Amino acid sequence: MNICLNPVIAIISCVLPVSSPKVPLDDAKLLQGAWAPVRWEFGGSAKPPSTIGSMKLTLTDGQYEFLEGPSLDAGGYAVRPDRKPKEMDIHGVKGPNAGHTIPAIYRFEHGRLDICYGLDGHRPKAFRSPKKSLVLLVVFSRTPSLKKLSQAINCSVNAYKCLYVMQSYLGEVSGIGKQGSTTMPSCAWSEAPSHRSH
To answer: Which residue in 7, 83, 148, 170 is a FRET match for 105, CA 20 to 30 A apart?
Structure first.
């Protein structure tokens, strides 16, 4: 009995992730995306989590937008990842910080982004906000985009379909299902989603 294994290989390639060499990303790329604050401390006092739920920071190609409800603070930023601690300069263009440059330090830790702003014009030296100081410490957590969330859901659904089709095909080949069938049913093949979109 001659069995063509190409359909099986095609299905497995849809289900199993393809390994690729890990390429280190620079900080400029790592910073990009949407971030939501999970901790906000100014002058040694922390804001309750319920008061920072409407805040969102978006970083894109050296530009930033910070939303707090309807209020917008926007401008540009530059980073110096070779400094210790890593440095960031925020240049306000729109909103309450328009025309101001705020020195800051930042770091990536445990999948989060910490930014410590020197609102007095002096760059902080540590990730803390002493009492009565003009130092703002914010811990951000990355917010997945709706597009990426949709892609993840579609990928999970397609993987489930691929497993179902592969199980049906292997069952027929082994004689558990329909006897005498040694090729993949055309109707089942049409149900298998293309893995080119992953």
So the answer is: 148
Residue 77: other Cβ atoms inside 10 A: 20
Q: Count the Cβ atoms, other than its own, within 10 Å of residue 179.
A: 7
Residue 52 has phi, psi (to 5 degrees) of: -115, 10
CA distance to 56, 150, 192, 195, per residue, from 142 (Å)? 10, 16, 33, 27
What confidence tens digit (pLDDT) does each residue in 140-181 have? 999 875 445 555 566 655 665 666 666 665 665 555 544 444
pTM for the model stands at 0.63
For domain 32-143, give the fold. Lipocalin (2.40.128)
Residue indicated by tokens 């300069």: 89
Alpha-carbon distance of 105 to 160, in angstroms, equals 44
Q: Which two tokens stand for residue 162?
A: 């691929």
Residue 43 pLDDT exceeds 70? yes
Query: Strand 101-109 and strand 86-94: pairing?
Result: antiparallel
Q: How far apart are CA 57 and CA 38, in angstroms?
A: 12
What residue type is assigned to position 66 of the chain? F
Q: Taking the domains of the chain in order of start, what are their residue ranges?
A: 6-20+147-197, 32-143
Strand partners, 73: 66
